Amino acid sequence: MIRKLAAEAFGTFWLVFGGCGSAVLAAGFPELGIALAGVALAFGLTVLTMAYAVGGISGGHFNPAVSLGLAASGRFPLSELVPYWIAQVLGGLLGAAVLYAIASGKPDFVAGGFASNGYGLNSPGGYSLGAAFIAEFVLTAGFLVIILGSTAKAAPAGFAPIAIGLGLTLIHLISIPVTNTSVNPARSLAVAVFAENGALGQLWLFWVAPLAGAVVGALIWRYVLSPGESPRGIGGDDTKAP
């Protein structure tokens, strides 16, 4: 179990440090070619690389919503849910702390939004609370369908991390203007702690909407798209749930 939790913590660290790091450190330099598309790709690459690197150990969740969705689908034991959430939150906080330590080394550094998620004044496009909730709910549900479908027995073996990474990239391309894209409560919490725009006050939405969306997506897969199908773990384990 310790190895599983360590893998989840490290994978979530990498997701926050790599994905949010691309936004905080590189997105402000147009000459690097890192804009919305670059940040979206960075998040997808963090999940893809860690799914291959440690997915075989823990199942490669790196996201409390994914863990809950997998539990709702019957692929993950509820008894391990809280330990996974703790590992993911701690890994995400460490990733944000390392990112802050690097970013604050610049003389004119101001944390500002620090890649945090938000609605209203904290939304990149000024989108409302309702729009933000719908986006996070629907996109997390879709993400769970991608995860469950690409790791099902009927799917080609070994390609799940690619589908999941590209799926997360697409999700970011859609919703960065709306909420700066969460679909991951641990990612939202990690950077909100360091943000200076009141992100902590809006954090509830980025727990409630992704968690609810994950459950709905998992139930859609379990009872509508592929009822009773034997699973594989995200990292490619063809024997049992992650």
How would you briefly describe this protein structure?
The protein is mainly alpha-helical and 242 residues long. The protein has 8 helices and no strands.
Class from secondary-structure proportions:
mainly alpha
Largest sheet, if any? none
Indicate the percent of residues in helices: 55-70%
Number of strand elements: 0
Overall shape: it is globular
H/E series: HHHHHHHH
Number of helices: 8
C-alpha Rg (nearest Å): 17 Å
Distance between the termini: 12 Å
Uncertain spans, ≥5 residues at pLDDT below 50? 235-242
Strand content: under 5%
Q: Write down the overall mean pLDDT.
A: 91
Describe the structure.
This protein is an all-alpha fold and 242 residues long. The chain is 62% helix and 0% strand. Helix 1 packs parallel to helix 4, helix 2 crosses helix 6 and helix 7 packs antiparallel against helix 8. The longest helix is centred in the N-terminal third of the chain and has 25 residues. It starts with a helix and ends in a 17-residue tail after the last helix. The C terminus is likely disordered.
Structure characteristics:
242 residues; mainly alpha; 8 helices; 62% helix; globular
Question: How would you summarize the topology of this molecule?
Answer:
Elements: H1 2-26, H2 36-58, H3 64-72, H4 81-103, H5 129-150, H6 160-179, H7 185-192, H8 205-225
